[in-house]
Amino acid sequence: MSKKIFVKTLGCQMNEYDSNRILDTVKEIGFAKTENLEETNCYLLNTCHIRHNAKEKVYHEIGRIKKKFEFKKKPFVIVAGCVAQAENDEMLKREPYIDLVIGPQAYHKINNKIEEFLNKQKKMEETNFDAESKFNYLNQIKNSSSKVSSFLTIQEGCDKFCHFCVVPFTRGPEYSRSFKEIISEAKILSQNGAREIILLGQNVNAYKNENYRLSDLIFEIEKIPEIKRIRYTTSHPIDMTDDLIDAYKFSEKLMPLVHLPVQSGSDKVLKLMNRKHSISDYLKIYEKLKTINSNIKFSSDFIIAYPGEEEEDFNKTFDLIKKVGFINSYSFIFSPRPGTVASNLNLIERQISQNRLEKVQKELFDNQIKVNKSLEKNEIKVLVENRINQSNKFFGRSEYMTSVIFDANDNDVGNIINVKINNSNQNTLFGDSVKKSEQKVA
Question: What's the CATH code of the domain at 47?
Fold first, then answer.
């Protein structure tokens, strides 16, 4: 009997990277990826614990699978990721349809756990923190990702303990992978077709292995001829060191978009959050980078209506957004995560929270629209990632990570080309490759 695995991924880029590596791993025991849920005999849900009601979304998804296979042979059901880590054996008790619960630091054990279940039909959970063993195991299995823009996890876990965040409890303490192993994987990805590498970590700029820092990784990956662009996410302001800032001066492949979550524009609220940085610290980083290159732009994350946020605090956040002119940013009303310091704090009235969020999002969205509008009738450089389904349109991204849809040719995929922007909306630019436009004119 053929063994097929269907993987659904929720949440962050790191989960996407993990899902791809799980697929690489289970090939070793004969499982092949399928996009057809109907034919699968193993269903894996890779979960995220960051957003509101994350746990209930998992049970809703499992309920959907139960209904789908009501009159068919039940697939082997695995719940992986951060919700799995947080809930562990409670998931098996609440939902008997689940067969294996496995946390993100135990993926090196997934083959053994699958085979053990198939042999003994015994439900299991595996949620020990063991990042080093995990990556030592994964380093022996080739990364088969062949996307033009590829993720590469370099660091996991967090030691910051922000009062709203579950990451220290679901991903464990900060762990940085070996410098040599990361470079080796980057070279493999480039051979597979990657032209852009996005370095990932819960605190990616906290990366430190022996004497190597994130800046050293950037300059070493830059030496790989096939790699044309380098990005990283997500950062913490207190780890934005001068060597990393200077990388924006000397690196030819590091993109000029800095995603640096600030969360609030109020020092009082930042202290309540246990963020360990001030707005003054943040603005110093901003000013240093803008001095290096005035074209650098910032994106960020904002938690609105954090417990204790008063109108004055909110106004400081709004003023910071206007000062910096953030683009491509994320903003959410605070929602408590079980087990965190902030989980039992008094919430701000829902209508006040909603009003604040709407005001912030309008300013953030207006910034995006303004920046995108300014690019109309101009040429920009776009890395071509793929053709869109069966259409004649192609998808790529600008240097600032903005989605671009345009006319091009199949042989443009994997290349950086000039695209003339014809129009735009909040999230997307639309245009034609300059080469194709010139052909039309001719």
Answer: 3.40.50.12160
